Amino acid sequence: MLMLSDLSMDCVHVRFSTRYPGLFFLPLFLTLTVYSLTFAGVSSDIRGSKAPSVSAGSRSPGNAHAKPAKAEGKSGETGVVAKTGEKGVITELDLADFSAAESCYGSDAINSRKAGFMRMLEASVGEEILSRNAGAGITSADYEAELARVDRETRAPEILDCIKKHFGFDKESGKFTVAGGRDRYKKVFLRKYLAQNRLFRFIHYDPKVQAEAYRIKGAVLEQTSGGASFAALAAKYGLVYSTHQYTVEERKTDMVNNSSQSFAAAPEGGIPWSPFEKQFIEEHLAGLKPGDMGKAAIESDDDFQFVRLVSVTDGKYDFESLRIKKRDDYFRTSEKLRCAIYDAELNKWLLGISGNPMLGILQFNNPVYQGP
């Protein structure tokens, strides 16, 4: 199956399948560890409209001049489907563009109106949060850089050509020849990836967002230097303490024990050896002596990890691990973002969604829709 990363190589945390139009993040949304957000409870509804099979020689990019159906927002603007925050406007033209662009993926495309709406809503929310809370919205220069990067790094040029053709791009001249086509391409195709990747980084790595995890990390460094044990700190701060045995080479019997008592052999058929163990030893354990703790925390999307070497015997590295989990409640605890949805069908559909964490930050303030 063609992966979306074949078009755009900026998917650092997740490779997005053309069968999965929903976002993004893990573990905050998925696990985008794949910001990306899941369409929890609504996948069958979104899959209700699939594009017909399209071969490389017969792809139809749609009509760049097509006129979408009319819909009026509360303020009377023709074609407005929803508004989020200060500038997040979703129009019928956006949804038509999404459907046409997704059709370029052929039989794997999920190009329903609901899928387009959710993707556009997530992108709008993401950009609003970045602008409001991170102080770093997506600029024109960012879009131009991303456009050039996708052109340069794509591994599916035929599909990218199909998508760009819908927005009026002429390969011979190297320009978008339809008025507004370049901006529509950025908004509908590029924006969702820029927003989701940046929002993921912001939520998982910003010191202000993860202030509590950073605070505990500092306390752990200070108290371990004074002789505090990992087990005692785990009990004090509610952290995850475990013991492990890694080897540089594959072993017959894998060793792992997530208790503080002893290092015991895993039962037959346990966790198999992985080259990750060798890499982990080389990067985090090889320079330590028994009793030594790594000087710095190992940071991942999900947590900070401290390690302390216990012993080394015949290439077997026994060590302790102390993990500080990062917060995963950003959308439930952040200041609400105003949202108004003017389409009755989408109102009803969105009302039935549960499990999508991004919706938790939205405050629905139009009289037609009362969100979850």
Ranges where pLDDT stays below 50 over 5 or more residues in a row are 1-6, 8-62, 65-76, 254-269, 367-372
Helix proportion of residues, in percent? 25-40%
Q: Strand order, biggest sheet?
A: 6-5-9-8-7
Name the helix and strand elements from N-terminus to C-terminus, one letter apiece: HEEHHHHEEHHHEEHEEEHEHE
Radius of gyration from CA coordinates: 24 Å
Task: Determine the mean pLDDT.
Answer: 78
What characterizes the major β-sheet?
5 strands, antiparallel
Estimate what percentage of residues fall within beta strands.
Answer: 5-15%
E-strand count: 11
**Gap from first CA to last CA:** 35 Å
The DSSP helix count reads 11
Cα shape = elongated
Q: Tally the structural domains.
A: 2
Overall SS class: alpha+beta
Main features:
372 residues; alpha+beta; five-stranded antiparallel sheet; disordered C terminus
